[in-house]
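Here we describe the complex-level prediction in full. Unlike the single-chain runs in Section 2.1, the two entities below were treated as one system.
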Amino acid sequence: MTVIFGVFLLTLLVITAVAIVRTQNLFVAVMLLGIFSLLIAANFFIIDAADVALTEAAVGAGISTVLFLGALALTYEHERVVTKHRALSVAVVVCATLVVLYATFDKPTFGDPNAPVHQHVAPWYLENEPKFIDIPNVVTAILGSFRGYDTLGEVFVVFTAGIGVLFLLSARPGTGGARRPDNSKSSGIGLQHDLIPRIVGRSLIPFILLFGLYVQFHGEYGPGGGFQAGALIAAAFILYALVEGEQRTLEVLPKNALIALTSAGALLYGGVGLAGILLGSEFLDYSVLATNPVTGQQMGIILIEAGVGMTVTGVLLLIFHAFAARDQV
Amino acid sequence: MQFLGIFYYWVFAILLMIGFYAVVAKINLVKKLIGLSIFQSAVFLLYLTMGKVTGGTAPIYQDDVVGQLFSNPLPQVLILTAIVVGISTTALGLGIVVRIKEEYGSIEELDIQEIDQR
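The structure predicted for the assembly as a whole is:
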């Protein structure tokens, strides 16, 4: 049964990808990319990656689509087709495909428990996680504690990307592309005249927020954690902005609050790491946060997951507002 | 299961190359970023495929079950963070595309090169 599902979903995935590349309408391509994300999330779920599937569904199918549409609104929808170097490109791609396909024959068998990837640190993590950290979700434990350095780095990459988008889109350029004046009529209308999307959207928002908080605080016990929750909460606010207009969203959650939230999240993560040093151990060692090392680890993970959630929510919303606040040239 | 394994790897290869084609052959910058997203998703699929163990489940301990077989959690952790980093970098790319549109009036690579050579 799994085989049939897997083959079906993978085939759909390839068809969608081909359609994305072939279509000349960028709006269609972006919509198909949302479908592509949802399909690949289902695939991730089949191969046991519940946490990743949740992230991909929230980020890929939700927020990424909105950001691409925001960019399209500021540019245009129809791509020009140029056939100049197509034969050369196809030749290069076909050669590369053959090389990659040849390489797949050397890969370990799918699902083989003796594959090299299952021999290194992963069994140690699985075996010792109940002893050191003792939370049911091993993915969250590795993300927060065993691999805390990696996650700290990723959070700062997200943070830096957010700052980069603000730099690019908040500046007032010399020629054209001015920021929209605050009192302009076009800002803040949203979908207020479309009754059904407005009512449905508004009634969905509290549930999305609630689910986001559940995913945040239940991440130790089931699939979830700061990254997924951040994306979900950001999605709720983006939905509010789409329904009620950007201006009203900024009244609920002003830009300064978002910047504070983003920085506070990153600082909370770094701060928990420093607390480890101050209490006499190493950076990002949570064992010393409480008298019982296992409780300390759990406290540390909850704190850093909160930091991750805050930063991801803040950055995604800042990026959204940066695109939404810009006027088309 | 054997067939599905080969199928997963081949779909990875094909998706990777579809994304690669969009990056090298298309001149529209938004389309290139879309291609890059597909390329990235293909890599995610490869990592997670390698982490799967036959008969395993998602790596979450349950109270009343002993001797559970789990798929490898490590690739999942790497990819989970990579997805969120991916959307942030894509957003940065889109920001650059929007600025290019404002300065050059076009997001087609050929137009931009032409304007630059003037």
